[in-house]
Amino acid sequence: MIYDVLIIGAGPAGMTAAIYARRAGKSVLVLEAKGYGGQIIKTPDIENYPVEPGISGYDFATRLYEQTKALGAEFVFERAEGIVDGNVKKVKTPEGEYGAKSVIIATGSESRPLGVEGETALIGRGVSYCATCDGNFFRNKAVAVVGGGNTALEDALYMADIAETVYLIHRRDSFRGEEATAELLRRRENVKILYNSTVTELIADRRLRQIVVTDKEGVKTTLDVRGLFVAVGRIPENRAFENVIELDGAGWASSGENCRTKTPGVFVAGDNRSKDVRQLVTATADGAVAATEALKYIASL
Ligand code: NAP
Fold it and tell me: Which of the listed residues 230, 248, 282 is the one where a domain comes to its end?
């Protein structure tokens, strides 16, 4: 079967694109390497999406998935490993190949590692990239969160309700994330913010026991923590599609606001796209735009 629209990635951007394409009567296949939902699934409370403040990321993603399925989009849980361009575009997975008239790449991004020695070996033994997934393992213990963006601020706030002490470690003297969240953190007695500081060493036996933090004067402090939540940004998942999309210096997919790429019939939507604001609302907006552009492209064939 040749699908009208093949969407790679079942996050908010991909699923919104599927909704728009299905409502236009097009056949839609969504390929997803992991589970549906993407990054939003890690957010405990979504406070900034219109209409339903406080919904969890998991509930949001589940309702979106159910809505998309009910409209008749097909989901296949396989990793897209490449696209072969042509009149019919072929998307390859380890299991086989899927043909489509148009493709929307909505693959989002993955966690950036901190790059400290021993980090990878300690994943699941104290090092985590998802506070909402793993936070409960550190109830009443001391933990550290690294980063200065919204993810780090929100993770620190989330952990402040669970952990005994939360050290928030940021390499600058001001945050990149929202001031309102930073202010909530400053008011929490069990949150200690270490500015101008980086994590330079992990000390562990089988599990993480301590971290060494170095400030900009070179002064080292050893902190007893059982958990280290790394929230230092994201890496776009675009590399497999470099033959059909242009990437900027940092690996984000270049496109205009119309989500078109250098390849006619291939579009990008959501967090993997080069843009200024990466939010749930801009991801879903991208999904709508990319699907609308895909419909125009199909009509032009
Ligand atoms: P981000 O905004 O890119 O922030 C990454 C942070 O990590 C920056 O503060 C950066 O420092 C720091 N960093 C990077 N590499 C580091 C390293 N090797 N060592 C120490 N620190 C390092 O990433 P994010 O917080 O994951 O957010 C990604 C996007 O999602 C953003 O657009 C964010 O606004 C959005 N988001 C929104 C919400 C929300 O609206 N509720 C929630 C979560 C995320 P510098 O400041 O020095 O660069």
Answer: 230
Contact 176, 146 (CB under 8 A): no
CATH number at residue 117: 3.50.50.60
State pLDDT tens for residues 264-296.
Answer: 999 999 999 999 889 999 999 999 999 999 999
Mean pLDDT of 124-134: 91
Catalytic-labelled residue, pool 4, 134, 155, 286 = 134
Six-digit token string for 48: 């900034």
Give the C-alpha separation, 30 to 229, whole Å: 31
Domain containing 91 equals 2-110+234-300
Q: Which residues line ligand 1 (CB under 6 A)?
A: 48, 114-115, 146-152, 154, 171-172, 176, 198, 231-234, 278-279
147 CA closest ligand 1 atom index: 7
Q: How far apart are CA 139 and CA 147, in angstroms?
A: 21
pLDDT tens digits, 61-70 = 999 999 999 9
Could you tell me the pTM of the whole model?
A: 0.83
